[in-house]
Automatic annotation (TrEMBL), chains A, B:
Keywords: Aminotransferase, Pyridoxal phosphate, Transferase
Gene Ontology MF, one: transaminase activity
The species this protein was found in: Pseudomonas umsongensis
Taxonomic placement: Bacteria, Pseudomonadati, Pseudomonadota, Gammaproteobacteria, Pseudomonadales
Stretches that traverse the bilayer: none
Name of the molecule in the record: PLP-dependent aminotransferase family protein
Keyword 4Fe-4S part of the UniProt annotation: no
Residue stretches in coiled coil: none
This protein's record includes keyword Transferase: yes
Residue ranges of domain Aminotransferase class I/classII large in the record: 48-375
Pfam short name (any one): Aminotran_1_2
Cofactor(s) required, per the database record: pyridoxal 5'-phosphate
Length: 388, 388
């Protein structure tokens, strides 16, 4: 049996195992990134035209592309509908970008930590993943400059707004500085913003893609976090030099994104009912965030440090006494608690012990306190055992 | 700008240009492979559970996997639901298979001619595409054996039932012989059957995957030709040794297939109303096939040879006086007729002049005769010009 060389880099299924374990109904899961069931909007299908059942264009539905371009321009990303490609969830943007840029040994530049599934697909295609450390307000600029002076990455992949996993939102100053550095060194930007609309303090900063003067860029978003992930409708917007290649790669991947989901997304994007839904969603998650923060204060104040997330779906904890948090998993699951160890979010997991990603959007509030309490107990037990 | 090496193999957009030109309303198009609009069934959405809006499993909906496995067992492919992976249209099976098997220079074995988009994605990943010639009842067996004796292809890709583009359906004897050869040489089979249910003479032969005793296999199908292509719901069924890798590759490509389309497909697969719809569809396309055959007899009998397709969506013409049919395109489009030249369906187009693929399912019957007549005139004109 001869598989491709890349298959040897398919990662083991630690994450899949955690999420599978978290499916058991008795488990209190902080592991996934699921929207709350209660906040999935009721949608109507009765008016959908029969023609949505036919094959469609690889680019996506023209009216949806127009609406997405309009939305991006309002955010400060100058673009036309002709630059918009509808994709099968923004995960597909990463697949297309990997195909466009990555050969074995191609250097790419990522935040540390970064989105796990991005890391995995870039590594699958053979990328050499360089990193720049994230601070509370964005990347360390000195280290970013240093990386760019000494390497020629094919692209930099950034999640500047409520990052998964760290919840970091770049400051205005760092957005501007990063754009300047990318222009200075001529590095292509891939900017991933699934969480932008899940803001709890009302802040909305212009994307970095909209600040570039010269560099090529791909800006990607999705309706998965704000409407219905089951539709699998995301989008990318690309600088005109990249678009034709991405379009061909999209066509070869799956011809086009399902039109049923595209039609449904179009009913919402730019509408007043969407604005109202977003407002309710932010309020709902803000309450969950606050309850989670209270539970963490009670049980984790002596164990870990964290920033209160101003958006997104996650708390990112840094243990005061670092340990490999993967070693907490068995104990946590034995007590019916699931969480995501921080190590896999780094290209070199063993150099980054001591972080935990906790999702606050999906847990039943009635079980939140008990789950956090049990998780803290597991941390204490393992730390005590290691100290002994 | 440094793209990956594979991007240099992204094909030029001849086909895209033809299909774009065919969009003009005045064009009589034999170029695409679209189902007839009139035969898209009316579907109901009112009973879809809200939970279909949430993220789902990468494997696909459990009930749909069960239904697809059941359907495959009836066809003669022994399998369990655990071997079924729901994909975003069967095009995605080709993407996953390319990732699983193909490095630069990997040999794969294909029918000549073969499905254009398969050829393109295998070449995109760097495959060295070997071929075996198709005859009216399947591949030339002596040449297949010879290829297998002298090469070790990573897989063989076959469309044994109403192939796109040639409309060939393998005979019982050749199905059995091909399975025997693949077992003898230990070659993995990828069997693609989008057209199986579009049979006009009621024939239904057991898939080759169901005849294998030892070799690994991937069997792939779709609801695009029989239900609604806009759902983008296909599936693959794989031997257990391949499944875990394909699942991880699926997850990294787009997390999972849209659940809305999966739910709709499940309402049909295995149902009586689906059987009834298929029966109506076969009758409808049989009538179109017969009308097309009559028009071809009138206008092409002295120009080309062809077999009357017993299923699928295409006539495959072989000109009596071969010429590069790509040179017919400008003239045809100037007369508002679109068709698909045969050359791109071969890995070495310049060695295979003189074929044309004509779709009979989508053309308005009222314009069929005029379209065929104009196309024949273009062929005559170009042949006369070349003879002059």
């Amino acid at each position: 049996m001869a598989f491709s060389e890349r298959v040897s880099r398919l990662k083991s299924s630690l994450i899949r195992e955690i999420l599978a374990a978290a499916q058991r109904p008795q488990v209190m899961s902080f592991a996934g990134g699921l929207p709350a069931e209660a906040m999935l909007p009721k949608v109507e299908w009765a008016r959908m035209p029969v023609s949505m059942g036919q094959y469609g264009m690889s680019e996506g539905e023209p009216a949806l592309r127009e609406a997405l371009a309009q939305q991006a321009r309002v955010l400060g990303v100058p673009c036309e509908a002709s630059q918009v490609l509808v994709v099968s969830g923004s995960q597909q943007t990463l697949d297309l970008a990997a195909k466009l840029y990555i050969d074995k040994g191609t250097e790419v530049l990522l935040e540390a930590p970064t989105y796990l599934a991005a890391l995995q697909i870039f590594q699958l295609f053979g990328a050499d993943c360089l990193t720049v450390p994230l601070e509370a307000d964005g990347p360390n600029l000195a280290q970013l400059r240093s990386r760019l002076e000494t390497h020629r990455p094919a692209f930099i992949y950034l999640i500047p707004t409520f990052q998964n996993p760290s919840a970091v939102r770049y400051s205005e100053a760092k957005r501007e500085a990063v754009a300047g550095l990318l222009d200075e060194f001529g590095v292509t930007l891939i900017e991933d913003e699934p969480y932008r609309e899940l803001t709890f303090d009302g802040g909305s900063a212009k994307p970095i893609a909209g600040r570039l003067k010269k560099s090529s860029w791909i800006y990607t978003g999705t309706v998965s976090k704000t409407l219905l992930p089951g539709l699998r409708v995301g989008y990318l917007i690309a600088s005109p030099d990249l678009f034709p290649h991405l379009l061909k790669l999209k066509q070869s991947a799956d011809l086009h994104t399902n039109r049923v989901g595209q039609w449904q997304a179009l009913q919402w994007i730019g509408s007043e009912s969407y604005q109202q839904h977003l407002s309710e969603l932010r309020g709902f998650y803000r309450v969950r965030r606050d309850a989670f923060q209270a539970a963490l204060q009670t049980h984790f104040a002596d164990l870990a440090d964290w920033n209160v997330p101003q958006g997104g779906l996650f708390f990112w904890l840094t243990l005061k006494q670092p340990l490999d948090t993967r070693t907490l998993l068995d104990g946590a699951l034995a007590h019916d608690v699931a969480f995501m160890p921080g190590e896999p979010f780094f290209p070199e997991p063993d150099n980054h012990h001591g972080h935990m990603r906790l999702n606050f959007s999906h847990i039943d509030p009635a079980r939140l306190e008990e789950g956090i309490k049990r998780l803290a107990q597991v941390v204490r037990q393992v730390q005590a055992a290691q100290a002994a």
